[in-house]
Amino acid sequence: MTRKQKVAAAFAAAATTYDSAAEAQAKAADRLVELVTAEPLPAHPTVLEVGCGTGLLTRRLLPRIGGDWLVTDLSPAMVAAAQAAVGADKAQFRVMDGEHPDAPLGLYDLVVSNMAAQWFADMARAVCQLRARLAPGGRLVLSTLGAGSFAEWRAAHQALGLTCGTPAYPSADALAAQLPGGARVREETVTVRHDDALAFLTALKRIGADTPASGHTPLSPGALRRVARAMGSPVSITYDILYALIPAE
Ligand SMILES: C[S@@+](CC[C@H](N)C(=O)[O-])C[C@H]1O[C@@H](n2cnc3c(N)ncnc32)[C@H](O)[C@@H]1O
Is 139 a domain residue? Predict the structure, then answer.
């Protein structure tokens, strides 16, 4: 199985539990709605959504701006969940890899994505592909994870000399450096509290975000217990959320 297939399978397995655990993702979706609606859009915009999940962002933004939407995700189970939550008559829904979008070029007034791009293998290339789908005057607006995410989890591993399976994420400056000229990056920290480290891991699984970095060897149960003990209880977990606003060429 490729990493991408593992990512899709993990999210598919989480389609029915996602909403109950996606606290940081819901906050990022709220902020994306603010960022998108702060600047004018056509009256009936064409919109492409990438990595829709269960439709947390779709359900918030579509009623606000209307328009013709193509709502997509890598995972067929997530596309089905979004379609059920949003309504099959409200948008088109399709399985699509956001890194290899088979959507029309130059069509969309808005390409939008909440907390999916951190799963891309090549952010710069994906942004280039998605930006090419924008109509003149359109914009690509996305949120993703930044370098400070899961700092407490990483620190506990480091203190014990263990390797953390959490993928590396870019700083705001590093993300900006990968984006085309004219792009703006904003940063926001969201903290999510869990009873303990194991509850944090359970929440990641319920979201489907439990695929480790490539090549990571899972910790033994004993090592995991040491990390959990080191973190104590309750635990506060940082989500360093980066928002990128990218104009059409
Ligand atoms: C953390 S969820 C976010 C879902 C949703 N946007 C939200 O606001 O809750 C990440 C989603 O990105 C999808 N995803 C991961 N890699 C993707 C890719 N390459 N192309 C499209 N979707 C992808 C996953 O299947 C999952 O549904």
Answer: yes
Residue to mutate, 16, 35, 78, 111, ligand 1, most ligand atoms under 8 Å from C-beta: 78
The 3-state secondary structure of the chain reads CCHHHHHHHHHHHCCCCHHHHCHHHHHHHHHHHHHHHCCCCCCCCEEEECCCCCCHHHHHHHHHHCCEEEEEECCHHHHHHHHHHHCCCCCEEEECCCCCCCCCCCCEEEEEEECCHHHCCCHHHHHHHHHCCEEEEEEEEEEEECCCCCHHHHHHHHHCCCCCCCCCCCCHHHHHHHCCCCCEEEEEEEEEEECCHHHHHHHHHHHCCCCCCCCCCCCCHHHHHHHHHHHCCCEEEEEEEEEEEEECC
Cβ of 114 below 6 Å from ligand 1: yes
234, part of any domain: no
How many domains does one find in the chain?
1
Q: Domain holding 132: CATH number?
A: 3.40.50.150
Q: Which domain holds residue 138?
A: 3-147+167-189+240-247
Atom 9 of ligand 1 has which residue's CA nearest to it? 56
For residue 220, tell me if it sits in a domain.
no
Residue 69 Cβ inside 6 Å of ligand 1? The answer reads no
Looking at the CA of residue 120, tell me the nearest atom of ligand 1. Answer: 19
> pLDDT tens digits, the chain, 249 residues: what are they?
999 999 999 999 999 999 999 999 999 999 999 999 999 999 999 999 999 999 999 999 999 999 999 999 999 999 999 999 999 999 999 999 999 999 999 999 999 999 999 999 999 999 999 999 999 999 999 999 999 999 999 999 999 999 999 999 999 999 999 999 999 999 999 999 999 999 999 999 999 999 999 889 889 999 999 999 999 999 999 999 999 999 999
| CA 11 to centroid of ligand 1, rounded, Å | 8
User: Do the domain assignments include residue 117?
Assistant: yes
